[in-house]
């Protein structure tokens, strides 16, 4: 009998010990990078009413108490970026030690398969120049957090991932765009870099938006149960709940986003969806101007490979461009020169990552001489059956002479488009169009084809987006 009592007492003590341990989301762990020079948020769980004390190796402290449900949250001031490993000690009902922490710059990457696509490639799709980056991948000052695919009916507390030092193995399986972006920042800033990747291929944007933002849309069906088959879990809000919400306001410098292909069948609401996504994420991170840099979906022959009209993909590209024009601190990478008509996962991830890093370096880190924004259509004028298109250029950019400019089409009131001959104006800031088949032109389209690849070059090397002057 005494032995039974001892076993029972041991069981009770073990249970209390487990229940009384501090719980932290997985991204608060060894090898993490914390955003430098900020009041960074940190939170977790413990026994209700427990005092939580946090001490950092860089000299700052914080103190709070768990609420009636056992949750606690506080902030702690970080220091200037440093390659010196730091530590955090968190004491409540027990003590957790977090070691080999770096203070630097943190970015959050998300979207579907073109963001998720790792340096090793995706099935038959390869990443151009991946080997060059794997050769320099052993870098303990770049840290990677690869969040596993998961879904949830309601907002989750934790995620499934861990921080890792960059090396050939961790980089090989990490987002190519995220990793190359991080490498470019490191090479230019010479501070520790942390990249969080939380993506899932084949997902619609509605999966990444909180439910309260989607309730106004009558066409969206919500689900109360999580399908057992993982590939069917990509329902409205489910990925936001499991792969975005848990990060709450974990301090980041900004967001990189690459998504849109899966919404091409219904492009009309995409502008509003993306507006809602940016607004809701900024609200979650408690930063109404949180940098949000995203990638326009790349050229691909949807008509040939997906039996989907090419114009629908271009309508997604239109919506993405308009978002960049309308929302403060939202910038777009145009990809009309970085696609592949035969592969929806184009290999030119390095080009995209470099352009994203150029935006960040210029807008967030003071590299003001970088031209990072593609020229944008400004206005149209028509005279003597010729069309003149004026463009808005970033800084001192301009078009480069090319006798084989393609992709422009003009139309008269009969709404039949014909390819147009194109030439540059003398100042290389405008395009002049003409077609023998079109008298009294009324509208222009650029790149509205099944799969369009840019031939209009600029001094900066940046292409222009597809666009149209009509709304038919």
Automatic annotation (TrEMBL):
Gene3D superfamilies: SGNH hydrolase
Stated name of the protein: Sialate O-acetylesterase
Keywords from the named record: Hydrolase
Pfam families on file: SASA (PF03629)
Residue ranges of every copy of the Sialate O-acetylesterase domain listed in the record: 105-345
Repeat recorded as keyword: no
InterPro entries linked: SASA, SGNH_hydro_sf, SIAE
Top-level division of the source organism's lineage: Bacteria
GO biological process annotation, one example: carbohydrate metabolic process
UniProt source species: Hyunsoonleella flava
Molecular function as annotated in GO: sialate O-acetylesterase activity
